[in-house]
Design goal:
Elements lengths: L29 H12 L1 H8 L6 H17 L4 H8 L7 H5 L7 H11 L6 H14 L8 H8 L15 H6 L7
């Protein structure tokens, strides 16, 4: 059995405090931030912080308009426009890209290719933006890196050798060069 040391709250086992005076080490991360908020502001404030809803369509459009306006004077802000477009539903993308001025479609396309590379919504955004460019008769083209990324899948360095000469067309889906 353990014996208590007088007046200091320690057990006879060296370095172990009784449970009434023990404090766990400070936690870190999002859960710890939420726990600190809950302790300082209460459950209601913590709950409302966590339960924030996604912005409405009207809020997204207002933010997109403001970000497009900012991007016209500061080209580094086109990243914000690209990320904001990613917040729209695919079914609403044609309406969203309509807020980009025709003379800025190329710079917007480049920002989407660079900053949303690999994002699931990128293809829908580019499709809508390219459609708007065609309807406005504005020439836009992919960046050189996007062209290279597409070509690198079908280049001669990938499909080399007599046995693979027609495999590239099966991969692409065309029939040019077949015998």
């Amino acid at each position: 059995m353990r014996e208590r040391l007088p007046n200091n709250g320690r057990n006879a086992v060296a370095g172990v405090r009784s449970t009434d005076s023990y404090q766990a080490p400070e936690a870190t991360g999002a859960a710890a931030d939420l726990a600190r908020l809950q302790r300082s502001a209460g459950n209601r404030a913590a709950g409302s912080t966590v339960a924030r809803e996604a912005p409405t369509r009207a809020e997204n459009i207002a933010a997109l308009k403001a970000e497009v306006a900012a991007a016209q004077s500061d080209p580094s802000k086109w990243k914000d426009v690209a990320v904001r477009l990613n917040g729209f539903a695919a079914s609403d993308m044609n309406n969203a890209v309509a807020y980009i001025p025709s003379d800025r479609l190329q710079v917007a396309r480049t920002a989407i290719e660079v900053h949303l590379s690999g994002w699931p919504g990128q293809a829908a955004i580019l499709t809508a933006l390219d459609g708007r460019a065609r309807s406005k008769k504005v020439p836009v083209r992919p960046t050189g890196s996007a062209v290279w990324a597409a070509y690198s899948q079908i280049g001669y360095n990938v499909w080399s050798g007599k046995d693979q000469v027609n495999n590239v067309w099966e991969f692409i889906g065309g029939s040019i060069g077949r015998k």
